[in-house]
Design a protein that fits this description.
By secondary structure, the chain is mostly beta strands. It has 2 domains: 107 residues, Immunoglobulin-like, CATH 2.60.40.10; 87 residues, Immunoglobulin-like. Helices cover 0% and strands 43% of the residues. The protein has a 4-stranded mixed sheet, with no helix packed on it. The termini are far apart. 16% of the residues are buried.
Length: 226
């Protein structure tokens, strides 16, 4: 599939004599839109003056043919498809005719995903068989060695989340700390975190009980004959 292209026309400039300036050949520029590095975004739309000009193809590319004078500047807005964050500023393109007509200036635009996928590697010393909680629901469980891997997707970029090791089950009363949590911050890229926890197993306190005193009749010594 070829690169999609569109033409942007500049306002005609009038010469001093009142005649129209001769139209110069158009200059082609390429706009490439990506989400994560190396991942093209199809369907990102490019607007000029509030009007839709073109949308990117499967390769995340769109070609514009610009007409005007050397140094003219065009401001275009790039709107990303749903699920991706659009740039807040317009893309400024300066018109320059290169010495090599075959060369095409390229402009890169980023449309980062609004949600991210996160992996958390859990290592809990002395914490075998513990449920891992996210927003109050179980998303994993440590194995016999206290290890687990948790996958969380569709997390909002620039947000924070917590994971908790649940020690509330019977038999875990001696683990310290109880129900420990860790907080993580989601950035603008998929990421891998670690949740390391070392539990201390408290020994059960030994309670000393005094022997029970005997109760009941007390036998009196008997008198014996000389």
């Amino acid at each position: 599939m070829g690169v999609r292209s569109a033409v942007l026309l500049s306002v005609a400039l009038l010469a001093a004599c009142g005649g129209e300036q001769k139209q110069k050949p158009p200059v082609e520029v390429l706009i490439k839109v990506t989400g994560d590095p190396g991942k093209p975004i199809k369907g990102a739309t490019i607007h000029s003056g509030g009007k839709l000009i073109i949308a990117t193809d499967a390769e995340g590319a769109a070609k514009l043919s610009l007409t005007g004078n050397e140094g003219d500047t065009y401001d275009v807005q790039v709107k990303c498809p749903q699920g991706f964050q659009s740039p807040t500023k317009a893309l400024s393109i300066a018109l320059h005719r290169l010495a090599e007509p075959s060369s095409m200036p390229e402009y890169e635009v980023s449309c980062p995903p609004t949600t991210r996928t996160i992996v958390v590697a859990v290592r809990a010393e002395n914490g075998a068989g513990l449920p891992i909680l996210y927003l109050g629901r179980v998303v994993g469980k440590t194995d016999s060695a206290g290890a687990a891997t948790v996958l969380l997707d569709n997390l909002d970029a620039d947000s924070q989340f917590d994971l908790t090791l649940d020690t509330s089950a019977k038999g875990n009363e001696q683990l310290r700390p109880q129900n420990p949590s860790a907080s993580f911050t989601v950035k603008r890229s998929d990421d891998v975190f670690t949740f390391d926890m070392k539990f201390v197993v408290e020994k059960k306190a030994v309670v000393w009980h005094a022997p029970a005193k005997k109760t009941g009749p007390i036998a009196l010594p008997t008198k014996t004959d000389p």
